[in-house]
Structures are given as C-alpha cells and as structure tokens.
Amino acid sequence: MVVAIDGPAGVGKSTIAKMIAQECNFYYLNSGSFYRAYTYLHVQEGKDPMDFPSVLQTAKHYVLTVDEGHICVDGKNIEDQLHTRDVDRYVAKVSAYPPLREFVNEQLRRISKDIDVVVEGRDITTVVFPDAELKCYFDAKPEVRAERRYKQHPEGQDYESVLREIIERDHIDRTKPVGALQVAQGALYIDTSYLTMGQVCEKVLSAIFTLKGE
Ligand SMILES: Nc1ncnc2c1ncn2[C@@H]1O[C@H](COP(=O)(O)OP(=O)(O)O)[C@@H](O)[C@H]1O
Ligand SMILES: Nc1ccn([C@H]2C[C@H](O)[C@@H](COP(=O)(O)OP(=O)(O)O)O2)c(=O)n1
C-alpha cells in the first residue's frame, strides 16, 4: 500500500508520516530529503547550486539509499547536513528544475515498488503516486506553521523571519511549472491548524484501517 502525503512546509508531514510508518510498520520516505541531499552534495563540491543542469550531473554521480527513513550516501547517514542555511537557501529553487524532479521521482517509485510505504512531499499525491491507495493533503495557516518551525529552533531566526520564509517557500512550491503543490483529486484534506499531532495521526490511521477493511 502507498500512503502519499503532501502539504506546505511546517504542516507536520514528516512528523505524522513517521508516526504512521511506525504504527503500521510501513517504510518511510521523505522526498524533500532527496532534493536537500543533492543540493548539499553539490554545494559541498564547491559548485554553483543555481546551475541546475550541473546539479543534475552531481545527482547522477551519487547513489542515495534510505536507511530507516534516513538518507545515506555510500552508506553514511547525511541527515544532519540537510537543514543548513545553505541548503535551506537553495533547495526550493533546485527542486523546481523538472529534469531533477523526474530523476528523484524515478527513485521514489523504484524504492516503493512492492512494499508498504508512507511517502511525503509536495507532488507525491499528484505526480509521483497519483494512484496511491491513500492520498492526504495537510494544510495549516502560515502563522501556525511558522510558530511550529520557530519553536523547533528558537535559538535560530526570529518568528517574523521564519514566517517570511514560509510565505516565500509557499509561493515557490505553489507556482513551480512542474510538480507544484496542489490538492489532488480524491485526497483526504486535513487542516491541522487546531489539531494535535495525535488527532491528525488518528484521522490518517482511521482512513488506512477503513481501506484495509479493519
Ligand atoms: N498538529 C500539530 N500540532 C502542533 N505541532 C505540530 C503538529 N504537527 C507537527 N507539529 C510540529 O511542527 C513542526 C514541523 O513539523 P514537520 O513534521 O517537520 O513539518 P513538515 O514535514 O510538513 O515540514 C515539528 O516541530 C512538529 O513537532
Ligand atoms: N516532493 C517534493 C518534496 C520537496 N520539494 C521541495 C520543497 C522544499 O522547497 C524542498 C525541501 O523539502 P522539505 O520537505 O524538506 O522542506 P520542509 O522541511 O517542508 O521545509 O524540496 C519538492 O519540490 N517536491
């Protein structure tokens, strides 16, 4: 079974997807980690992340694997390197390059073949797995998402800057020529603004149990 989850930054996709994966014993895939990993690896090589064809070359040079939800290169977990200022600054633009999207999508489909999986991102319900057994769209007001992100790293940027970046990121994510964030037909729409993580998880689990006839 494929459970596909899309939604904007800070809405709770990773948190809930991991909870569902653990509860149902499904594999967990975070597609944003692929875009982050390629951005990181390219910058690490001292190359220009705005030269998108060259980022694709870098991507093709490395083999990414996923170990218990963590992205690895040559077997080494690089998760800690994926949320730096540099990666945050460039990843939205890098991820808008259609050939790179196609490259990432092929890998997501290959990894997910014949297994039970929860996959989250921006275009999972629309492009990568439009026929997923369960499609979910999580939403929340930008102010709520900024507050959640700010609380994750109170030592980092102030709330106003976090909110500004969330709004900018939303704009890029929603206006991408390919793979833009949108609510897929037939998706379970959940506004998480005033729900606890447990309540969101319950809604998704209930949909999975219904599908399984449990
Ligand atoms: N329903 C919720 N209520 C309160 N906080 C939440 C909720 N869902 C997620 N969070 C918190 O919001 C932050 C961002 O969640 P995350 O799962 O990283 O979002 P995303 O993967 O969509 O970017 C995390 O600190 C998480 O614990
Ligand atoms: N399927 C996906 C997943 C992520 N992206 C983009 C969206 C973001 O700008 C980056 C990083 O995604 P990620 O989910 O890690 O971002 P956030 O944690 O929500 O800030 O990649 C995408 O275009 N398509």
Indicate the topology.
Blueprint: E1 2-6, H1 13-24, E2 27-30, H2 31-44, H3 52-61, E3 64-67, E4 70-73, E5 76-77, H4 85-94, H5 98-112, E6 117-121, H6 124-128, E7 134-139, H7 142-152, H8 159-175, E8 188-191, H9 197-212
Parallel strand pairs: 1-6, 1-7, 2-6, 7-8
Antiparallel strand pairs: 3-4, 4-5
Helix pairs in contact: 1-9, 2-3, 2-4, 7-8
Bound molecules: adenosine-5'-diphosphate (ADP) and deoxycytidine diphosphate (YYY).
GO biological process, one term: nucleobase-containing small molecule interconversion
Binding site for ATP: 7-15
GO molecular function: ATP binding; CMP kinase activity; dCMP kinase activity
How would you sum up this structure, described in words?
By secondary structure, the chain is of the alpha/beta class. 51% of the residues lie in helices and 16% in strands. It folds into two domains: 1-10 and 122-203, 3-Layer(aba) Sandwich (Rossmann fold); 27-115, Rossmann fold, CATH 3.40.50.300. Helix 1 (13-24) crosses helix 9 (197-212), helix 2 (31-44) crosses helix 4 and helix 7 (142-152) packs across helix 8 (159-175). The longest helix has 17 residues, at 159-175. The radius of gyration is 17 Å and the shape is globular. The two termini are 14 Å apart. It binds adenosine-5'-diphosphate and deoxycytidine diphosphate (YYY). Residues 9, 31-32, 35-36, 91-92, 95, 121-124, 169, 173, 179 line the site of deoxycytidine diphosphate (YYY). One of its GO terms (cellular component) is cytosol. This is Cytidylate kinase. It catalyses: CMP + ATP = CDP + ADP; dCMP + ATP = dCDP + ADP.
